[in-house]
Design goal:
InterPro entries: ABC_transpt-TYRBP-like. Keywords: Membrane, Transmembrane, Transmembrane helix. By secondary structure, the protein is of the alpha/beta class. Among the domains are: 118 residues, 3-Layer(aba) Sandwich (Rossmann fold), CATH 3.40.50; 151 residues, Response regulator (Rossmann fold); 57 residues. 51% of the residues lie in helices and 13% in strands. The protein contains 15 helices and twelve strands. The protein has a five-stranded parallel β-sheet. Strand 4, helix 5 and strand 5 form a beta-alpha-beta unit. Helix 2 packs parallel to helix 10 and helix 8 runs parallel beside helix 9.
């Protein structure tokens, strides 16, 4: 069958497209192989580490147990720093408030030693409060050999400062505001003559007691004493609390364990103390606030945790421990309980500046002061605007009324004189101007006291002495 010319042209074009595609495929195949071989060469002879870096691990040792009031605050502060970095943290509890005996500490040491020997080495250790701090010092050459140790919440200031010469240990002292709080106590309770510290035999309590007595030299007119569970049972302690008279004021340091070894939790101990105590009770820590304590300059355990975590972060980034001195100051805050202030007739204006008052009744103005002040300013501006607008409207009305009167006078003058309205108006203006000019001129000359002119002025028809009133053409 004979093909038409158009059919032959279509077949030729199709054949050419097939040839072009085959040519491109033939050229692309060697190029693809070359790229693949080059990639394989790079991977074999220039290996790249594509694996993620192992996270760093930190061991946190608490002196107490998970329900102890300060624990969660410390952990919250630490995690607020660590959560932005690839750091994992294990937590161990010594539980020495409830079990302060040597057997508990020995069992803890054995358990922790077993765990450390069967896990990867920690990059750093954080110890919280005095018992864990002393445990870490005893184990720094054994269990924690060559591991940096950072402490926080330590009350034993002397022992903590000694670590400035230790190349393995540094940290944050729990710098209680003892002197400032006692100063506030004697100011708020002016009739008090004796300051009593409530304390037990725990290491942290005894460290705070030493600090308490060191402050006595700043208050020579007050007697410093202690009421200690070291020599009393809880029943004897409660009787002694009930016997404190109104001239005493108390500060709570540590009351957990009596002479028989009976240990109470913080809240239970505080409840028993408050049932018998009738005098103001101040405190240096946040736990217990709102449960019968007036307050004081309070330790912020969250900030303590933050500071310790920042130090650990510096160490993990390569800074030597010996280059980081022990931190001796902590950001403490004045905090008071409104209910206790009210119970002892203490007014809020007697408190130190920037004090935080807990449980204060809702005060609308105090809570919304910035917004109320802005509304008052806006209200004053609106009133001013309304006054100015009203004054403007009143002035416009007066001007319109005066204009109407002038127009009416002109109309009356025109009607009476028979002259055109414009001519009458011009005559009025001309007469007014002439009178004003004459009066002003003569008054100026009178001030200059020109005698001849003065005589003429006295005899002049426009003079007030003549008693005449000038007549216009309209009159």
């Amino acid at each position: 069958m004979t093909k038409t010319p158009s059919e032959r042209r279509c077949k030729q074009a199709y054949s050419m497209r097939i040839a072009i595609i085959n040519a491109k495929t033939t050229m692309a195949a060697p190029l693809f192989c070359a790229i693949a071989l080059a990639s394989l060469f790079v991977c074999l002879f220039f290996p790249v580490n594509v694996f993620a870096k192992n996270p760093q691990t930190v061991l946190f040792i608490s002196s107490y147990h998970p329900l102890f009031p300060t624990f969660n605050q410390q952990i919250e502060g630490i995690q607020s720093i660590f959560r932005n970095h690839d750091i994992f943290m294990d937590i161990e509890f010594m539980d020495t408030k409830r079990f302060p005996d040597e057997t508990n500490i020995e069992n803890f040491q054995k358990s922790l030693s077993y765990k450390i020997n069967h896990t990867a080495k920690y990059d750093a250790v954080i110890v919280a409060d005095d018992n864990a701090f002393m445990f870490a010092i005893s184990q720094q050459k054994k269990m924690f050999k060559e591991i940096p140790i950072v402490f926080l919440g330590v009350n034993n200031i002397d022992l903590a400062l000694e670590q400035n010469s230790n190349t393995q240990i540094t940290g944050v002292i729990e710098s209680v505001s003892m002197k400032e709080t006692i100063g506030c106590m004697v100011k708020l309770i002016p009739n008090a003559t004796k300051i009593v510290a409530l304390v037990d035999n725990t290491p942290s309590g005894q460290a705070d007691l030493k600090h308490f007595y060191r402050c006595a030299s700043y208050f020579p007119y007050h007697e410093f004493s202690e009421l200690s569970l070291v020599s009393m049972t809880w029943e004897e302690y409660e009787n002694a609390l009930a016997g404190l008279d109104k001239t005493n004021v108390a500060i709570l340091l540590s009351t957990y364990k009596d002479k028989n070894g009976t240990v109470l939790g913080f809240e239970e101990a505080l409840s028993r103390i408050k049932q018998k105590l009738s005098i103001p009770l101040f405190h240096l820590w946040h736990h217990g606030m709102g449960k019968g304590l007036i307050g004081g300059k309070i330790i912020n355990h969250k900030e303590q945790g933050k500071e310790a975590a920042k130090i650990v972060l510096e160490i993990l980034q390569g800074k030597p421990v010996k280059m980081i001195p022990v931190t001796t100051k902590s950001p403490n805050t004045w905090i008071f309980d409104y209910q206790q202030l009210k119970a002892f007739n203490i007014k809020s204006d007697q408190l130190p500046a920037k004090s935080i008052i807990l449980n204060e009744p809702y005060a609308f103005y105090k809570e919304n002061r910035p917004y109320i002040q802005r509304l008052v300013v806006i209200f004053i501006l609106l009133l001013t605007t309304i006054f100015l607008l009203s004054w403007n409207i009143l002035c416009q009305r007066r001007s319109k009324e005066n204009l109407k009167k002038r127009i009416m006078n002109c109309k009356k003058a025109k009607k009476n004189s028979g002259l055109p309205f414009l001519q009458v108006l011009m005559q009025l203006i001309s007469t007014d101007l002439k009178m004003a000019y004459t009066l002003i001129s003569m008054k100026v000359l009178q001030i200059l006291w020109v005698t001849p002119v003065k005589r003429q002025w006295d005899d002049h028809p426009l003079s007030f002495k003549s008693g005449t009133i000038p007549k216009t053409e309209l009159s």
